[in-house]
Amino acid sequence: MHQAQQAYAAAAPVRTPRQAEHQIVAAVTARLAAALAAGDAARLAAAVHDNNRLWSALAADLASAGNALPVDLRARLLGLAGFALRQGHRLLRGEGGGEALVDLNTAVLRGLAGQPNAETASGAAA
User: What is the dihedral angle through the alpha carbons of 62, 64, 65, 69, rounded to the nearest 10 degrees?
Assistant: First the structure.
C-alpha cells in the first residue's frame, strides 16, 4: 500500500482545463517571444506555426456546439483567433513584427488567470 501512495504522490498534479490552456498558451507565447528576440527566421517560423496551430485549435473549440462559453464571448474570441492567424501569416511573409501576437497571447493568459487587463478593468471591451 505504501508503494501505491508514493506512486500517486509522484504523479503530475491534476489541472483544470483552464490551467491546461494557460500552460499551453504560456509555452507557445514564450517560444514566440524568444524567437522574436533571437531574430532567427527558422525558429520564428516554427514558433509562428505553433501559434497558428494553437489559435486554430481554439477557434475550432469555440465554434463547436458543445462550447459552454457565452455566445458573445465566443464571438469576440473567434475574432481574436482570426486576427492571430492573419498576423501569423503576415509575419511568415516578412510583413511586420510579431509583438501583436505576443501581446494578444499575454492578454489571453491574463484572462485565463483571472487577471483582467487595464482596458477590461476600466470597462472597455476586450
Answer: -20
Q: Which whole number is the average pLDDT over 80-88? A: 97
Residue 38 has pLDDT above 80, yes or no: yes
Of 42, 50, 34, 35, the closest CA to residue 88 belongs to 50
Q: Is 72 left (phi over 0), alpha (psi -120 to 50) or beta?
A: alpha
- Here the cell at position 12 is 503530475
Mean of all residue pLDDT scores within the chain: 87
CA distances from 113 to 13, 21, 36, 52, 109 (A): 18, 10, 24, 22, 6
Give the DSSP H/E element, type plus range, for residue 97.
Answer: none
